[in-house]
Structure formats: C-alpha cells, structure tokens
Amino acid sequence: MPEPTIAISDLVDDSAMPSPAPDIEIAALGPAEIRSAAEVFKGLGHDGRLAALAFLADGEKSVGDICDHLHLNQPATSQILAALRASRLVAFRRDGKNVLYQLAAPELADLIRIAGRLKF
Fold it and tell me: Which residues contact 60 (CB under 8 A, 6 or more apart)?
C-alpha cells in the first residue's frame, strides 16, 4: 500500500498566518543568509529557549519574571538566557540591580507564532 502524500498546506494552518513579506525572496537567499537563518533556528531549537522567547514577545522582562514564568530556578534560567544572548536572539540592559531582556528583533515574535501553528 503506497504511503499517503502530505502537502505543505496539510502541515500549516495558514488561516491566521500573516502574508509573506513581499521584499523577501526566499529562493534568492545566498549562503550567508542561509547560515544566518540556520543560527536562528538552532537558537530556537530548545523548549526552554523557545518558551523564554515566546514570553519576551510581549515586551521587556526581568530575569525574575522569566524565572517565574518558566518555573525554573535562577541558574537554569540564566543558562537559557546565556544561550539566547550567544545566539543574538535577545537584547538586554541593566536597570540598577535588575537585568532586563527583550527580543533582539520583533520579527522573532512572528516566527515563533508561525512555528506554533505548524501541525506535524
């Protein structure tokens, strides 16, 4: 019995997806852009990092807020945030004793929303 074929449209719920950006020609991505995209996806490739980024989609948050949201202790949250900083997916600033984090690019929020709608 042949395996059923799966169309891309079967994997994605596009009813709530934004239209593709008209200024981005995906087929024209060069090696540098492909490497950059791979680094972004590598940074997103961990449940904790993705959860932290999704939480930051609403705006700037303190390390304590991120710890509480992720239900993790401070060392575990710091490890996640360090990986996100190394991937350049977050920006941070100091405010007195607090360190505040936000998404490095607002488009990351759209990417996370789209990824959450994929059905595999």
Answer: 100, 101, 102
